[in-house]
Amino acid sequence: MKNLISNPSVLETFSDEVFFEIFDRLSPIDLYQTFHGLNNRFNTILNDSRMCFRDNISSLNLKEFHSYIENILPKIIDRLVSFTFGTYDTDEYQQVSLFLHTYSIDLSLFKHLRTLVIIKITISDISIIQLALIHLSHLVNIRLSVDSNDVERLSVVNISNNFFIGPRLKYVKMNMCSRTTFNNVNKISNIKQLSIVWCQLQELTHLLQYTPDLYTLKATISGLNDIKEWTEKICGNFTKNYSLRLNSLKLVIDSIPFDHLLLFLHELTQLRSLWLLLNHYEYMNAEKWQNIFQSSLSKVDQLDLTIALMKPFLPEQLLIFSTPYEACEKFNTKFWLDKGWCAKLDEYDHCIRLIVSNNLMPIIKKAKRE
Q: Which residues lie closer than 8 Å to 274 by C-beta, 6 or more apart?
């Protein structure tokens, strides 16, 4: 590269498109520090509207961050197609706060952005971000994570249509570290992949009405506010009314009765892949699981079912403790083995896990030699 820079006649032989391809692999900081001001050809290429940029500034120290915001970002803000900001180590400095509040950078100015990743935001920042998303018509992928230090026990994140309504938005990941609600969502979105930490089952069900193209869902979910209202809505025609196409489901379940979970799963007839992490003895009913896999979930071929329990410490709990061993045997009967699924128990000092999966090979006992 040094030889090329020192010989302008060689540079003139390359088309702008070649430089666009090369520069696409370099960070804007490196590009502007190395090439800007070197000669007119490079200045023209760097400032060309066809020149797009991808950047991740989460690793910048405080001095580098200030320099970037003042000297680099204004030159490229409307040509960034992928942008990540926010620091994992909040002890160093609050990058998101400086970005959104001290410098008051307007996210709507990133008008060609296709991927946006923001690390360690506060709950109050979400309203600012949602307002900006209306203007990011090219956005395909968004990932947000909330700083857990900002979350209180009763913290709630309210998501509106603004978050999902982008015409090209397909991939959404929200790690809010607090209850996330979708009651204000009432417009159809084009989302295909969604990840949520965490929400209530009733609110997730509401959101599914407005995400008919959703193909992959990952979520941590907990109980219900209004069981009667939810039960009436979920039973019967939910799948028919909303044409759910969900193919892959990954759920971490907390404080949801088994029968309510089964009502929810009963509607997801297109599922091919199911991953569940559960934490109560009642989920070890192999007969109930077999019934739903024979009926509504007959298309599922990829299964990873994990039930993790704390070991009992009181005498009256010892009887219940036999349940995992009995369940393991029932999950290793003909129906499960014919599906290519088998069960095993993993024991630790304080917990035991029952795992039913197609990733486990059944143990084949060797015949004893006489």
A: 249, 265, 297, 300, 302, 303, 304, 305
